[in-house]
Design goal:
The protein has about 270 residues and is α+β, with helices and mostly antiparallel strands. It is about 40% helix and about 20% strand. The chain is built from eleven helices and eight strands. Strands 1, 2, 3, 4, 5, 6, 7 and 8 form an eight-stranded mixed β-sheet that branches. Strand 1 and strand 2 form a beta hairpin. The radius of gyration is 20 Å and the shape is globular.
Length: about 270
């Protein structure tokens, strides 16, 4: 954890972060073919994004983050997608998760970032898992699809429904460490190849109560983490954050396509001359 005064003194201006993202565009374009071939974002790309501080935009300041406004975040995502659509997509998902982490009990945040505040989190929020009540928490089992960027992450947010006496409990999000799940290599598709959106499998992992957030609380933008994370950022509701996270990359990719088309067209001579 960092001191608040120390963090505020090192938080870059939004314009600076956007400029850093735009500076990555040429390199992302060069690596795009390699990313498609490997079916994941290259490690060097993730390293460049980490070095630029891009994953800290929504991270709580007390854990080394910047707590910036969503508009700045989406400008960064637009820039990344101009260079590589898959990179913009992964950033739009993985880069949003520090916001969700800000709603969780701070004990969960301590487990994720206590030793390394650069750790990333992937997700598959569809309630594909079953959580059986167990002393102190739940035993989570299931298989989840489309966990974009999971190969670069140390934790996962996974959707599930607690199994309670007489029926099902409230749909929830469970936070699980990499040691408790397997990544199944299933992502062999024709588009967004480099997102590495593989399956995640869990068998009977113990998830403490404090690593569970009810879906309705997430949707309404409330949670126990707000006790320590006071920024208005952590009062936004799910739809305003996540829905744009999975649509903005397409707009950036379109801008990249139009720029490429104009460059191609400007290099061609007019007929009849």
């Amino acid at each position: 954890m960092h001191g608040t005064d120390d963090i505020k003194s090192t938080v870059p201006a939004p314009a600076e972060l956007i400029a850093r993202a735009r500076a990555l565009i040429p390199g992302l374009a060069v690596r795009a073919a390699k990313a498609e071939e490997e079916r994941r974002i290259p490690h060097e790309t993730i390293a460049d994004m980490q070095a630029a501080g891009l994953f800290r935009v929504f991270q709580p300041q007390r854990w080394g983050g910047y707590e910036m406004d969503p508009a700045s975040y989406f400008e960064i995502q637009l820039a990344l997608a101009e260079g590589c659509m898959s990179t913009g997509w992964v950033y739009g998902v993985v880069g949003l998760h520090p916001w969700l982490m800000g709603l969780f009990d701070d004990r969960a945040a301590r487990e994720v970032w206590g030793n390394d505040d650069t750790v990333l989190i992937c997700s598959s929020l569809v309630p594909a898992g079953t959580a059986v009540p167990s002393p102190g928490g739940f035993r989570l089992s299931g298989r989840w699809k489309f966990a974009s960027g999971c190969e670069h992450c140390g934790w996962a947010f996974l959707g599930g429904v607690p199994a309670v006496e007489g029926g099902a409990g409230e749909r929830s999000i469970f936070l699980v460490p990499r040691s408790d799940y397997a990544i199944e290599d299933t992502w062999r598709v024709s588009g967004l190849k480099a997102t590495g959106s593989h399956d995640i499998a869990v068998q009977g992992a113990l998830v403490p109560d404090y690593r569970r957030l009810r879906w309705i609380d997430n949707f309404n933008g409330v949670g126990p983490g707000q006790v320590v994370n006071k920024s208005s950022l952590y009062r936004w509701i799910f739809g305003q954050i996540f829905f744009r996270g999975v649509s903005t990359a397409a707009l950036g990719a379109l801008k990249g396509m139009l720029d490429a088309y104009l460059r191609y067209g400007s290099a061609r001579g007019a007929r009849g001359r």
